[in-house]
């Protein structure tokens, strides 16, 4: 913000400029096949996809390996392509073991975090992450105390398979100039 003459940026409050979000004309959006989840006028909750979809993706790698193996058997591809078959099958096996079925969804993770933290929770936000070589799903729940302004904040990590609390961390929010 550039102050006008007479405004002291150290003592006067900043002027609020009302800005509109990005808007796309409906005809342009229709021509570009704008998906509903990007349309600001369509209101619905966001759903995290189940990581079990990886298992279906693994089937694509198995099919590709089978096609290459058939090509080798028919003499159309060099024998060295068996390395590609092995690599594709290894990737498919990894997708199989990393394709966890998400049992604990966002709402339950927020409930578990609310019970696990040592203060009344006001605002909270959850995001799904993955840990370990098998990519086990873990909810990372950021929580703030219910007082206004919040005096405490914390992070609760909730297992996405069995709903257990993996770890918690909380701290006092340092006072600020706001």
Describe this entry's structure for a reader.
The protein has 178 residues and is α+β, with helices and mostly antiparallel strands. Among the domains are: 53-97, no CATH class; 106-172, Nuclear Transport Factor 2, Chain: A (Roll). Helices cover 30% and strands 21% of the residues. It contains four helices and four strands, in the order ααααββββ. A four-stranded antiparallel β-sheet has the order 1-2-3-4, covered by helices on one side. Strand 1 (121-131) and strand 2 (136-145) form a beta hairpin. The longest helix has 21 residues, at 53-73.
List the uncertain runs. 1-5, 8-14
Q: Within the CATH hierarchy, at the fold level, what is the topology of the domain at 106-172?
A: Nuclear Transport Factor 2, Chain: A
Indicate the proportion of strand residues.
15-25%
Record the strand order, biggest sheet. Answer: 1-2-3-4
Structural class of the helix and strand makeup?
A: alpha+beta
Shape by Cα distribution: elongated
The end-to-end distance, rounded to whole angstroms, is 18 Å
Percent of residues in helices comes to 25-40%
- pLDDT averaged over residues: 82
User: What's the CATH architecture of the domain at 106-172?
Assistant: Roll
Per DSSP, the total helix count is 4
Largest sheet, strands/sense/barrel:
4 strands, antiparallel
- The CATH class of the domain at 106-172: Alpha Beta
- Alpha-carbon Rg, integer: 26 Å
Number of strands: 4
Give the ordered list of helices and strands.
Answer: HHHHEEEE
């Amino acid at each position: 913000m550039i102050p006008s003459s007479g405004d002291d940026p150290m003592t006067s409050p900043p002027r609020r400029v009302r800005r509109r979000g990005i808007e796309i004309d409906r005809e342009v959006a229709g021509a570009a096949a704008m998906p509903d989840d990007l349309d600001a006028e369509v209101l619905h909750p966001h759903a995290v996809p189940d990581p079990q979809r990886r298992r279906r993706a693994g089937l694509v790698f198995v099919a590709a390996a089978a096609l290459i193996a058939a090509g080798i058997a028919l003499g159309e591809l060099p024998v060295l392509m068996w390395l590609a078959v092995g690599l594709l099958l290894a990737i498919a096996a990894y997708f199989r073991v990393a394709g966890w079925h998400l049992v604990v969804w966002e709402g339950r993770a927020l409930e578990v975090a609310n019970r696990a933290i040592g203060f009344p929770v006001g605002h909270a936000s959850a995001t799904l992450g993955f840990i370990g070589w098998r990519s086990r799903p873990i909810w990372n729940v950021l929580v703030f105390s219910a007082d206004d302004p919040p005096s405490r904040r914390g992070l609760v990590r909730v297992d996405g398979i069995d709903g257990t609390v993996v770890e918690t961390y909380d701290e006092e929010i340092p006072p600020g100039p706001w």
